[in-house]
Specification:
alpha/beta; Nucleotidyltransferase, domain 5; 2 domains; five-stranded mixed beta sheet; 9 helices; 5 strands; 13% strand; globular
Amino acid sequence: MVKTEQTATALCTSVPLGESSWLEFSTLSGIQGLLAGVDEVGRGSLFGPVVAAAVILPDHALPKLIAAGIKDSKKLSSSRRTQLAQQICGLAIDWKIGFASTAEIDKMNILQATLLAMKRAVLKLKVQPVLCLIDGNQSVKNLLIPQQTIVKGDERSLTIASASIVAKVWRDNLVLRLAAKYPMYDLARNKGYGSQRHLLALQQYGSSPLHRKSFRPCQMKVLSS
């Protein structure tokens, strides 16, 4: 555990953005034990939960994912994300999803809800990692497992990038299922984010029970006909 804590401390000096290698092959290569990558999606959405994934990969999965062209989920097409998510889940030692509801987002704010979703994903893991790599600069409160935040982690860590892909595909699939219930918001295209059609629909129809009422666009007054 001492070695893990020392490595986590060393990570505070981040690898430069221009570094071509992934952290798992450089700064993190000396860690003895399993790493969990943790990332969230849906933080800026107006609709639905914020979703996090925690992913633990075996060493032999890393070169396979590099060969498959893994990268930050936002830089992948929808179809490619789906293919990679299936490959990641098939290779993973363990992976879990955690989320915070719209009601929780409105109650505690989006940052705290995001950290709660991350914590829930980690706590669901059946295999305990020696270190959690958390995307961003905010630590997860009251997490008993050692953790290290990594800014732009989905561009630097294979396990975080994997978590971002799994979380994105899971959340998109959820929003697509909900889109049929709320067709006026064009959710199938915007995935809950504030597209022009989504904002116009909020003006015309008001917000649904799954919109985040604490977000200003969801507080729009309905235009009179």
